[in-house]
Fold this protein.
Amino acid sequence: MGHGWYYLTAGECFKLFCSERTFQEARARCQDDCGDLVVMNSLHKYNMVLCRLFKEDKHHLVRAWVGGVRTANGKFGWVDGSNFPSFTRWTPHQPDNARNQENCLEMNYNVWGHWNDLNCGHKRRFVCSVTLSSSQLQSEPSQLA
Ligand SMILES: [Ca+2]
């Protein structure tokens, strides 16, 4: 899978990709590693991602796609089909769905750590996550002869 993957939860890792891609291009890149854009359906996951972005750029300039999309009912949800958590981190006055064309979720719009709905065609860095299979999680060395 390469370098740059960090612990997210037990059995789940995530990585910030620093190339800039559209939302769909970013998803495709995540899926190349058998993952998807990160789903932050807990405060823990949100904090882990935010910490990683902070380490990447202490000037707080990193804006990145994460796995939030506007769903058929017009509200935001996660790409795995889960609902947004009870907490949200929308930037004040967001989501505004400007020009009725903002269906994807970016981190760090105007206020560090806060969210914005944005036209999916913009290019951003992005955060992927992968769920590890049980064989990848194996920690005990197999029997050595
Ligand atoms: Ca917006």
Summary: The chain has a mean pLDDT of 90. The helical segments are 23-32, 43-56, 134-137. Residues 94-96, 98, 102, 116-118 surround calcium ion (CB under 6 Å). The first strand starts at residue 6 and ends at 9.
